[in-house]
Structures
1.
Amino acid sequence: MRNLANKNIQKMKSYSPPLEGRRNFEGRLLDFNEKTVPPSKNVLKKLRELIDSDQIQLYPEYDDLCGKIATYSGVKKDQIMITNGSDQGIDLIFRTYTEKGDKVIIPSPSFAMFYQCSRVIGNKLGMPVYNEDGSFPTDKVIKSIKTGVRLVVICNPNNPTGTAVELEDIEEIVKKALRFSAIVYVDEAYFEFCKITAIGLIDKYPNLIITRTFSKAFGLASLRIGYSISSSTNIAEMLKVRGPYDMNMPAVVAAQAVLDDLESLNEYINEVMNKAKPMVEEFFRKNNIEFYPSRANFLLFKMQKSSLLVEKLRSLGFLTRLREGKRIDGTIRVTIGTVNQMKKFINQFKNA
Ligand SMILES: Cc1ncc(COP(=O)(O)O)c(C=O)c1O
């Protein structure tokens, strides 16, 4: 039988990041920007209590978690939608606000899921290129917002460059997009590390949507939980598209537990951003290794023979991620973990 999938799907490739075998890798995983230490004992205790509660047969409930997220984010509960990872939030934004043939702006290079979700719908993609120094191409993005544009994506800070956009630039983009009735979507997956947020603009602009995740600083990547923030109207629309039980109860319980322990979150962020990252940056500088100015828990650096280096680092016990695309061919992305972990990374890098 001929392939019956939609034509645009047939033309696509699946997004298959190199995940397999990582859990058995004997070494340090610095390739997916995850937290590099497990969640606290209290999170694990709450998960065990759930398992022992004889409630696994019940459908999950979300109200308490949405309330906690609203408090954490400083918005109202009806401005929050939890999702199965922020990846699901991305998908819901594209499905709720764009149709086949609509113009969508995704500054590039950026996170693969944006392109994937856009191609599933069959949007017309505009991809203004990031500036040479990795800074966000604000002027190009503002110029590209015209009639027919339905959605503009801002990844802040950007994966894979780690570079951030200032709030004033975001506001300019949101204002221009509003004139053309386009949505601006800001991905804040690394907000906890970067601290820049567009949340303060949510009540001012009805065309702004933010996604965040528990996969990075909070350390719950395997459980798949994230959330979106927007006006209550936008949230109500996207909730029509999301399934009623898409997030599982272990994820909900763990997310509540990490929100109850912001002290350990802050300790980790402080160690990564104020101690370990400056140490790696210093090492790169001393060795004339160019890197982008990152506001997240990872650094993208440039090397000759980058694929060889990634392999060498793997053999020395460190997984890193080779990145390619316009502007970033021959770069490697490394997740920043604790000071001890990064000292070991630096030592092995010297041997690579
Ligand atoms: C910029 C960005 N957005 C979203 C995600 C997806 O995160 P998750 O689906 O685990 O919440 C990632 C993960 O790497 C990311 O880098």
2.
Amino acid sequence: MKNAYYAERVPTGIKGLDEAMSGGFVRDSINLIAGGPGSGKSIFALQYLIKGIVERNEHGVYLTFEERRDKLVQYMKNFGWDLEKFEKDNKLRIIEISPKDVRKAVYNKNLGLKYGTARYIKAKRVAIDSINAYSLLFPTEVAKREAHVNLFEMLRSWGVTVLLVAEYDVEEDKGSPLDFEVDGILRLYNFKKGDTRTRAIEIYKLRGSKHSTKTFPLEIVDKEGIRVYPEQNVF
Ligand SMILES: Nc1ncnc2c1ncn2[C@@H]1O[C@H](COP(=O)(O)OP(=O)(O)OP(=O)(O)O)[C@@H](O)[C@H]1O
Ligand SMILES: [Mg+2]
């Protein structure tokens, strides 16, 4: 088997981050972006899709269980991203999924229409916001585990590079059971020191890849999006 280090990469498009990741995510892998509330997970996930479209001509699908579509479109205008324009050009689909849709889809072992959509626009990137919201739909640990297995199986069959948003407290160093299942994990921090908070990012895991082991500063910049500083220290 080809060593994943030399495997084809799917760059996040964030300057400095891709270099710290041997070029980006491994093509067709499933990855997590984890962090607490307001840590920048949704912005990161959308930026990943937009950079894919603009810089690589790789189309994207954003499945959201929690953000309202209209709100998201408005919100992302702050970063200069016109989501509706990308949708009109069939380069992006933002799909709001109701709990009812998911249950139906899971029983059918696929997201039905959603796969049709991904195929229709020839999507190469998929972001799911969030995996917690999806897990909540299943009542027991066993049911959740089965739902994850089904979801992963389905996503792997699509031939896309996936970014799952995961909500958990990275500062407590708590993880999720999914941490063992995915190919890569990025963690977003929002440290408090004195009376200010500092954002940072860590490449926590990247299967088969050489990557930076440093936690480095990250900023959310108005009209631009996420920017990282791999050469700098957090404090
Ligand atoms: N226009 C902007 N310019 C700079 N920073 C912004 C801007 N808009 C939002 N932010 C910052 O980004 C944060 C929210 O980012 P995002 O929505 O990606 O978080 P999240 O991790 O998805 O949060 P949640 O778990 O609550 O969904 C805000 O709390 C704010 O600090
Ligand atoms: Mg969010």
